[in-house]
Write a structure and sequence with these properties.
72% helix; globular; mainly alpha; 0% strand; single chain
């Protein structure tokens, strides 16, 4: 019974993930939104493509010593490269899209090369992983390029307005600032 429960939970999780990927791809990446039926068809087609890609990835890694484990570790080393642009973008006005993309690409490339050379950790660096080295490179490039590439005037105004809304506090439907003071 426990095995069936674990299997059912895994299938449910995979189904939810592939549905989310399909919907996200159809709405946010492909921008297919003419009508609900078209979006649904595009989402279903994307689910099929993602499923086929996952099967291909599983088959290609089945004879590798650690197979899917290695693929999972490499995926994590890559996905963490989103962190500098995400976190600094939330709290720091200076960042820009060019710096974020350049940082992510170079950080990801660094992580991939080091992951290939050192699948578990990098002994010369005290055992840290390729993803951490990629993060350091990524963050450095993001910060340097954020200072080197100035914002366009319209972008500066948009960012200032966004941060002023946050500093002023929440607003009601009419745009009036609501009090955030507690009694």
């Amino acid at each position: 019974m426990a095995g069936i429960a674990v299997f059912a939970a895994t299938v449910g999780n995979v189904n939810a993930i592939t549905a989310a990927i399909g919907t996200h791809t159809a709405q946010d990446i492909l921008h297919i939104g003419a009508d609900e039926a078209t979006t649904t068809r595009a989402a279903r087609a994307t689910i099929v493509v993602v499923t086929v890609l996952a099967i291909i990835g599983a088959v290609l890694t089945v004879n590798v010593t650690s197979g899917l484990l290695t693929l999972a570790l490499a995926s994590y080393q890559g996905i963490v490269q989103l962190a500098p642009a995400l976190y600094l973008g939330i709290f720091w006005k200076r960042g820009n899209a060019s710096a974020a993309v350049a940082g992510m690409l170079v950080g990801f490339a660094t992580a991939v090369v080091l992951q290939y050379l050192y699948p578990v950790s990098i002994p010369a660096l005290g055992g840290i992983t390729s993803g951490i080295v990629g993060l350091i490179v990524n963050t450095t490039i993001y910060v340097v390029l954020s200072y080197a590439i100035p914002h366009r005037h319209s972008e500066s105004e948009r960012i200032d307005a966004l941060f002023s809304d946050i500093e002023d506090g929440p607003a009601d439907a009419a745009g009036r600032t609501l009090s955030t003071r507690t009694v």
